[in-house]
Amino acid sequence: MPGPDKETDLTERIEAFLFDLNRGGSGAGPLRGSAETARETTALLRRITAQARWSSAGDLMEIIRNEGRRMTAAQPSETTVGNMIRRVLKIIREEYARSRGSSEEADQQESLHKLLTSGGVSDENFRQPFAALKPNVIEAINELLTELEGTTDNIAMQALEHIHSNEVIMTIGRSRTVEAFLKDAARKRKFHVIVAECAPFCQGHEMATSLSKAGIETTVITDAAIFAVMSRVNKVIIGTQTVLANGGLRAVNGTHTLALAAKHHSTPLIVCAPMFKLSPQVRRLSFLSDFYRYCEILSKVNVHCPVFDYVPPELITLFISNIGGHAPSYIYRLMSELYHPEDHEL
Amino acid sequence: LDKIVLVEYFRAQMRKDPDMASAVAAIRTLLEFLKRDKGETILGLRESLKWATDCLTGEDSSVAVSSGGELFLRFISLTSLEHQDLSRCKKVMEERGELFLEKISMSRTKVAKLCHTFIKDGAKILTHSYSRVVLRVLEKAAAEKKRFSVYVTESQPDSAGRQMAEALRKLNVPVTVVLDAAVGYVLEKVDLVIVGAEGVVESGGIINKIGTYQMAVCSKAHNKPFYVVAESFKFVRLYPLNQQDVPDKFKYKADTLKTVQNLSEEHPMIDYTPPSLITLLFTDLGVLTPSAVSDELIKLYL
Q: TM segments (chain A) (predicted)?
């Protein structure tokens, strides 16, 4: 029967996704880029909306929240999964409000205005069923998927405004977004790129090979040489794993060093990050160094290998995202447009 | 309702619940004034409320009372726009006023819930003077079985810091009282600084007991995070650019303002801390960066 078959098919897919997420973290499975993870998560959420059994918006949100909790628990360092879930939850809220006909702009955030004018406890329990809700939500998720597909291109399109001829650009490690950004600028301008190799995985080497294939003059340097070389650099352009709510970054290790060196030389630091990397988390002092990769360890030696660094917002000059350029102090505003405050904790 | 009764009611509110914020007491008093008011027009109502707020600021000159009064006035204006008829309007105002008071009495709990996660085990916290919000945050952290120790500044001229230390000792939190002048000395041992605020200004800076600015400058120099905890009704429409810009009516106690002729001989009770020195603000509207504060104010007053 189509009913139970669809359900088992759905649960199978969810399990497969969770398994992949788990493996991706331990280093044994294929390493996927965050754009891919975001796309797969959103596709899976669309499938859940289409195939799971739910009658009102509240039920759907519960289902998605539960699945979301499992997904984030499978791989806590991959924040794009949680971000996409929160985006979809916000979409559901918006579609529900639109179906009900109320003006949902006013209802969104807690604000002083809302405190003063609200007439009572809002009855937002999302229990009213609407027939048109399902196709509307699926359509909105499709729009989200289209947006996700275009992010790298949208960012790369802004490259010519920021990179000028004969400039020396520094970057660290390997970021697909920065790669596309630099390659797009290379079509019309000639410039040099210095790549810090980012030990111990040395992803900078792959980045350098890829850039030089596109005809860009590239130099690879060790991480220790970052400060020494910084005086000759005009701009620093980096990618990041996550953008935090206070405008700070969670980026590959070595980025904080790079940012401090750039600040010391007053070199602008530009971060290329698509909007799906924006996370409502604020930096807690404990999440650093909680990610260990498989490597050979001598028996009496403890090797700590943090994979991520925290970069405070004061060291960042500009964020370039698929919707344009923003200052770090503006990130809180973008966050309030993407996510609903009640979804910050899944 | 005449001046003496009004002031007496305000004082009684403060006495009845010493834990209540002075802005909340002010709003409660104004709500009571509204209920007893015999005015015939909305404009008359606004006028008498303005007069009442002035009486209250004459009694207690802190920024919080002023911001509470302005918020209430704004509340009246917004409500009166919706209903033209005065009696209907007054009923709605009274209902909403009670609801508003209920909500803001929950603010401290919301702030504590947001902030206590930033206190990790083994943390050493520095705080300034006596703040009920900071006390609530530390209470929540202690209830979550976090181990931390606190340094409190004595905070002259009224030694309010000692009161804070007493309250913390009751919670079994190890606390040390330090001289106001010892802030720079103590900062190398400290992990984070948490202070309350009497008022949060439009730029995202704060107005708080004198000595806060000093603490902020020192923590910036030592690279320690400087957190501010404040409820949202303390947001005030001021934009001081430096210490001189803060109006005199906030700087000195109400009695001082009435009796002393030459204010330049008096010591101010508050100072202004600019937003560049503040890391994050914890309010019942969420965790805000200083740039987000003006957004909130615009949403209210637009």
A: none
Provide the 10 A C-beta neighbour count for residue B242: 8
Percent of chain A with pLDDT over 90: 44
Among the partner residues B99, B286, B289, nearest to A341 by beta-carbon distance: B286
What are the pLDDT digits (tens) for B34-50? 888 877 788 888 888 88
Q: What percent of chain B has pLDDT over 90?
A: 41
Which of B96, B120, B296 has the CB atom closest to A286's CB atom? B120
Query: Which residue, B77, B101, B108, is CA-closest to B29?
Result: B101
ipTM: 0.75
Which superfamily does B108-301 belong to?
Translation initiation factor eif-2b; domain 2 (3.40.50.10470)
Please name each of the domains of chain A with its CATH number.
Answer: 4-103+125-148 (1.20.120.420), 153-343 (3.40.50.10470)
pLDDT tens digits along A234-258: 999 999 999 998 899 999 989 999 9
**Domain B3-105, CATH homologous superfamily name and number:** Translation initiation factor eIF-2B, N-terminal domain (1.20.120.1070)
**Structure-token pair, residue A160:** 């010519």
Task: Please write the tens of the pLDDT for every residue from B86-97.
Answer: 778 888 888 888
Contacts with B38 (C-beta within 8 Å, 6 or more apart), sequence order: none
Cβ–Cβ contact A341 with B under 8 A? yes
Mean of pLDDT values over B219-232: 94
Given an 8 Å threshold on Cβ–Cβ distance, is A332 in contact with B232?
no
Give me the residue from A116, A118, A285 closest to B120, CB to CB: A285
**pTM over the 0.80 mark:** yes
User: Nearest CA of chain B to the CA of A46: how many Å?
Assistant: 30
Is the separation of the CB atoms in B89 and B42 below 8 Å? yes
